[in-house]
Amino acid sequence: MTTTGDQTIRRWSDVLMPRTFTLWTMVLAVASVISQAGIIVTGGAVRLTASGLGCSEWPRCTPDSYVTTPEMGINGAIEFGNRLLTFILAAIAVLTILALWRLRKTHGKLFGMSLFLMLVIPAQAVIGGITVWTDLNPWVVMLHFLVSALMVSIATLLAYRIGAERRARLTNTPALKIQDGATTSMTRSSSIVLYIAGWFTLVMGTIVTGSGPHGGDPTAPRHDFDQLLVTRLHAAPVYLMVALTVVLLVVMYQNQTSARQRRAVWTLTAVLIFQGLVGFYQHLNDLPIGAVWLHMFGIGLVTWAMTVVLDVFNSKYETRPTQHELAPDDGQEALTPA
Fold first, then answer.
1. pLDDT of residue 3
2. Which of 5, 8, 92, 217 has a 20 to 30 Å separation from 78 between CA atoms?
3. Domain range spanning residue 273?
4. Within a domain: residue 191?
């Protein structure tokens, strides 16, 4: 006979480490995408408020303290606050690993993604420390940013796959494909090239930033590049992304694409329009802080949207039952893959 305490422990164990894909698992996956994109936005706030060296040391904030002090003012508080967000990312990553722990044998790739997101967090912290040690060297800042963008992309894939697993259970469809509509060589190749162009855009964007006035600190080193030239090089892959998005819009309506595929492309279209308008505004108005910060917010949206488009036209992922669903231990009927 189990005690009330044993039942409570088992209940919490089933909540934190479910035997199937629950709403809790989906919430954590979405929280991972939002938090990874959020760290880009807060990092931008650090840079735009010249708080990059608000904490002059790492891992300490000052030579004598791990936390900010009143003497460091608002810049110290902003930089230290951004550092604290690392612990929120870590907490979400740990909870995601726990949520997928009992699913790791049947869904090893999803569990591997959650491990990757967790393991990169301390690596990012070290890169952040090197950024401080090098007085905000723009190449190191560039690496710091690109790793964050990569984590947004991986978190997006994880969330999209967990979303598919949830849909499979809600619709009683054991084998559900993410790429569930018609595809052609044109849609597949266009989405792949678009994704690659997106990464060229991100790389060139960091070089533009490293050549501009918002270095995170008045003493921060800057790239010795012509800012107008690198801005034009940054815009070139953006034009390619727009052209490929138009191609997808035209081609997908000539084929039996799914509602999910069409929604992904239209979402990317809206995001590119938003990001393009903000980009042109900031360029034509000498990089006002508010517009630059809004542009960084758009970076997370673009990374998310282009990853989803890549996935819906190319993914081979297919949902499958968990061990619990194949061999339930509570008298429930087992699922049989289609």
1. 65
2. 92
3. 179-316
4. yes
